[in-house]
């Protein structure tokens, strides 16, 4: 790591404030700034954190930062949020992880809850409904764009683990996201266990069995405990099972919010996903809109709190073990199976999202969004805002809007 004249030792866990690389005030300010301007999802968050921690401040070396990205990608949950928490831990210990993670998450949470109140109001004006319907129509294209961006790196890694199995895992993820709803998670886990078993067999080690509890059974148990327990259960699944990005969990969250608990209509859920894309900070904030629809402001805050708690716990109690975790062959083998299935699930989530559209003009907006993202390579935020603008114009012409 390059020495800096104004830097201090970065070893987390030291007891004296002056021995850390940054003060808590600096962590709050810098991570809060990223939380305010981090439009565009994980790629933007990673770029901003790299610029801060590696280029501007020299708190981490390039290699340390790359290792941090790799370690966070091995964990379930929102990877860019975990990277923000980890880098704050790296420069200010556990107190920094708590302060930096909160500063990164809270700006987006405030914005998305305010927008949720507007879009989920009992009788919003036509232009608001049109903007939501237009933005929601673009979400399926965003899912395809997100999944397609992960394919090249996964295909390169598959050269050493088996490309035929990689393709089969991707197809299993696509099919499960399109058809299985809450059972999607079991498919992801199953693909990981298959690859782990194959890998262990090659090394001459005993196989491994998986004991799984059906997601619907647990959801039903939570439902009996009241709406807040149900919100917490849905949010916990989002925080624990978002391998590869927030879109992996979209089919399961959609099934819970729309079909199981009936907190939202399909159109409102599309709006929630769109809001998660256009607000700063973590895309997983979508779950806050679901919580708001279920139980108002308290439900939204509860959903966000529960969804992000696993990320904090993983870093606070596991960050010092990251190097050993990354080097574990069983962990690597499991993710070599679950990873491509997660990519397939992201791609497959576009199918139920597209089927949720109810108006012909929304499919035209979807097609336009796909062209902007996949052909002209425009950004996600720009595309969704353009789709929202198109929806507003269409609504003002008197066209039918989703109910």
Automatic annotation (TrEMBL):
Coiled coil: none
Transmembrane segments: 97-121, 133-155, 167-189, 269-295, 301-319, 331-354, 360-376, 383-401
Protein keywords: Cell membrane, Membrane, Transmembrane, Transmembrane helix
Domain of life, per lineage: Bacteria
UniProt entry tagged with the keyword Thylakoid: no
Location(s), subcellular: Cell membrane
Topology class, membrane: Multi-pass membrane protein
Nucleotide-binding in keyword set: no
Main location: membrane
PANTHER family to which the protein is assigned, alphabetical: CHROMATE TRANSPORT PROTEIN-RELATED, CHROMATE TRANSPORTER
Record-stated family: Belongs to the chromate ion transporter (CHR) (TC 2.A.51) family.
Name of protein: Chromate transporter
């Amino acid at each position: 790591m390059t020495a800096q004249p104004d830097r201090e030792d970065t070893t987390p866990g030291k007891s004296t404030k002056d021995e850390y690389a940054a003060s808590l005030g600096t962590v709050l300010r810098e991570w809060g700034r990223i939380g305010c301007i981090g439009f565009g999802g994980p790629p933007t968050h990673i770029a901003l954190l790299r610029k801060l921690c590696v280029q501007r401040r020299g708190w981490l070396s390039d290699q340390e930062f790359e290792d941090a990205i790799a370690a966070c990608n091995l964990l379930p949950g929102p990877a860019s949020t975990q990277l923000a928490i980890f880098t704050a831990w790296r420069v200010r210990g556990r107190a920094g992880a708590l302060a930096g993670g909160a500063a990164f998450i809270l700006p987006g949470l405030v914005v998305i809850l305010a927008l949720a109140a507007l879009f989920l109001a009992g009788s919003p004006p036509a232009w608001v409904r049109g903007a939501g319907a237009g933005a929601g129509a673009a979400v399926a294209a965003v899912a395809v764009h997100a999944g397609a961006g992960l394919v090249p790196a996964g295909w390169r890694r598959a050269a050493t683990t088996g490309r035929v199995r990689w393709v089969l895992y991707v197809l299993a993820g696509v099919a499960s996201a399109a058809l299985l709803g809450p059972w999607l998670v079991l498919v992801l886990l199953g693909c990981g266990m298959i690859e782990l078993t194959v890998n262990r067999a090659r090394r001459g080690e005993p196989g491994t069995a998986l004991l799984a509890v059906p997601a619907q059974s647990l959801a039903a148990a939570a439902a009996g405990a009241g709406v807040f327990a149900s919100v917490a259960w849905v949010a916990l699944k989002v925080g624990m099972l978002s391998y590869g990005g927030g879109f992996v969990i979209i089919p399961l969250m959609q099934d819970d919010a729309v079909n199981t608990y009936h907190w939202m209509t399909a159109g409102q859920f599309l709006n929630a996903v769109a809001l998660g894309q256009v607000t700063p900070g973590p895309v997983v904030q979508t779950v806050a809109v679901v919580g708001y629809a279920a139980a108002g402001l308290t439900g939204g805050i509860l959903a966000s709190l529960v969804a992000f708690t696993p990320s904090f716990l993983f870093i606070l109690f596991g960050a010092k073990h990251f190097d050993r975790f990354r080097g574990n062959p069983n962990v690597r083998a499991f993710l070599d199976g679950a990873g491509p299935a997660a990519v397939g699930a992201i791609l497959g989530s576009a199918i139920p999202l597209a089927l949720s559209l109810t108006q012909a003009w929304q499919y035209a907006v979807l097609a336009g969004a796909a062209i902007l993202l996949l052909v002209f390579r425009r950004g996600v935020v720009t595309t969704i805002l353009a789709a929202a603008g198109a929806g507003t114009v269409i609504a003002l012409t008197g066209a039918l809007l989703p109910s």
